[in-house]
Specification:
The complex is a heterodimer of chains A (243) and B (252). With 243 residues, chain A is mainly alpha-helical. Chain A is 83% helix and 0% strand. The chains are: A mainly alpha (243), B alpha/beta (252).
């Protein structure tokens, strides 16, 4: 276990040594932003809207006391979405989509000697391939978290108002009531940290793949599993630190 | 000229290369042959410093590849062209982009010159007009040719080919062999080919080194290999019964 952590840290160090020119990274960064960020908007939107809707319906169903005002429903939807769903839940979903993609891509490049081809040209393959993915992840994950947060609250609004369990006025009042702007910042910080963990752990798993197609599949699975565990541990630590 | 000196490499307790030394001359096609699992590809990886041997060294025109500054190593790497077994083309890039890749990464050449150079190399390997196709859209033989085009795009002094004929039909194999031979003579490169294809051995082997269980046990050329009296080499060369019959007929 310790040797794996050590190897992971050395791998991280390798990303920042023998770097290529800024232009090379910039072009690859833009490509990776498209592959990691833009292509994830659809799944993030779907997940966020439905999770927000479910949270609204479930909260209303369980708030049976007449002394609790109904606007508390949207208040809970807002805080749950901002503090947990828009960052942690979204990143667990992204660990599956982005993590497996990164591990699969790098694993395939490894077993088909494309990484060797880069090394032979004198290019630091880890830095060239992984650094743009890392930068794109820590740049786009917070943006996705903002989209996810907005759509989660919007999903709750749609479910609540269309089914008649809460009026639009109550919902809006609830999401504005005792709002702490720092919670948005927490969601962004979490997404930033999770983006770092998912991209580097998945890249590490893919980059050191040995064998053939079977091992590439195993590397992808392992990348997703390890990324999810890392996200959940980091989520707990950040919750302790930031709240 | 490439000189390998006393290269030894083990994986765990298994010795894969045992004190292998040789000299590969400029302008000649040098072949490293042997059965599967005898250490040919590991030797190539040691020469490219993709795997570092425990003992020994590789000299490129007298320059030790394993010691010295990163910049010195980078300079030697810029003089290398490598054709990998499966071509190792980048799946996300077109054929043209694949060939242009070393120029983009390692030179400051203007875009027009790069384009001309890529077109020239694709023409040289007989693939003009295929630049816009993706690697997934071309055949195995074409992938090898694109690999060769990428390997020669930087005008290399040293050309390495890892089993250039694997997975190809006999006719395409011969064409690839001829292409490598022509390029070696045209550019005066030091060419090292890892193979177990007897057609290549007999047709383009200016120098041949036979590896057996990680040791060099014979060296010669395509003229002398059929008369070699090393049992392990005979077993390898004459594993083809037709070839063995031809030799026996010739001897009688």
């Amino acid at each position: 276990m310790l040797s794996v952590v050590g190897k992971y840290l050395i791998f991280l160090g390798k990303l920042f040594t023998r770097r290529e020119t800024f232009k090379v990274y910039w072009n690859r960064f833009l490509d990776e932003c498209l592959a990691i960020g833009i292509s994830s908007i659809f799944i993030v939107a779907i997940v966020a809207i439905f999770i927000g809707a479910v949270t609204c319906v479930q909260t209303r169903a369980n708030l049976v006391s007449p002394v609790i005002p109904v606007y508390i429903v949207s208040n809970i939807v807002r805080d749950m979405t901002l503090l947990e769903l828009s960052s942690t839940f979204m990143c667990v979903v992204l660990a599956g989509k982005v993590g497996s993609n990164i591990a699969g891509e790098l694993g395939t490049m490894k077993i088909s000697e494309q990484i060797d081809a880069l090394e032979v040209m004198g290019i630091n393959s880890a830095s060239y391939l992984v650094l743009p993915k890392l930068l794109a992840s820590i740049f786009t994950f917070p943006l996705l978290a903002i989209i996810s947060g907005f759509l989660g609250i919007f999903g709750g609004y749609m479910a609540g108002t269309l089914t008649g369990i809460i009026t639009p006025e109550d919902y809006i009042y609830g999401i504005r009531y005792s709002f702490i702007p720092f919670n948005v910042f927490i969601a962004i910080i979490k997404a930033f940290v999770f983006g770092f963990l998912i991209s580097t752990i998945s890249a590490f798993k893919g980059y050191y793949t040995r064998g053939g197609a079977l091992e590439v599949g195993q590397a992808s699975t392992s990348a997703v599993t390890n990324s999810c565990i890392a996200v959940l541990i980091a989520d707990y630590l950040l919750a302790e630190l930031l709240t | 000229m490439i000189e390998i000196k006393n290269i030894s490499k083990s994986f765990n307790d298994r010795k894969v290369l045992d004190n292998v030394s040789s000299v590969f001359e400029k302008g000649k096609t040098s072949l490293v042959i042997g059965a599967s699992g005898t250490g040919k590809s590991v030797l190539l990886k040691c020469m490219l410093d993709l795997v570092r041997p425990e003992k020994g060294t590789t000299l490129y025109d007298g320059r030790d590849f394993y010691i010295g500054e990163d910049e010195d190593k980078k300079n030697i790497r810029r003089e290398m062209g490598v054709l990998f077994q499966g071509g190792a083309l980048f799946d996300s890039q077109t054929v043209h982009k694949n060939v242009q890749f070393p120029l983009d990464m390692l030179t400051e050449m203007p875009e027009k010159e790069k384009k001309d150079r890529v077109e020239f190399c694709l023409h040289r390997v007989g693939l003009e007009g295929t630049g816009n196709r993706m690697p997934a859209e071309i055949s195995g033989g074409m992938k090898k040719r694109v690999g060769i085009a990428r390997a020669i795009v930087m005008n290399p002094r040293y050309l390495f080919c890892d089993e250039p004929n694997s997975g190809l039909d006999p006719l395409t194999s011969i064409k690839i062999d001829e292409l490598i031979k022509e390029i070696t003579e045209e550019y005066n490169t030091t060419t090292v080919i890892i193979t177990h294809d007897m057609n290549s051995v007999l047709s383009i082997g200016d120098y041949i080194m036979f590896l057996y269980k990680g040791k060099k046990i014979w060296e010669g050329n395509s003229q002398t290999i059929l008369d070699a009296s090393v049992p392990e080499l005979e077993e390898f060369v004459f594993s083809n019964k037709a070839l063995k019959q031809m030799r026996d007929d010739k001897r009688h």
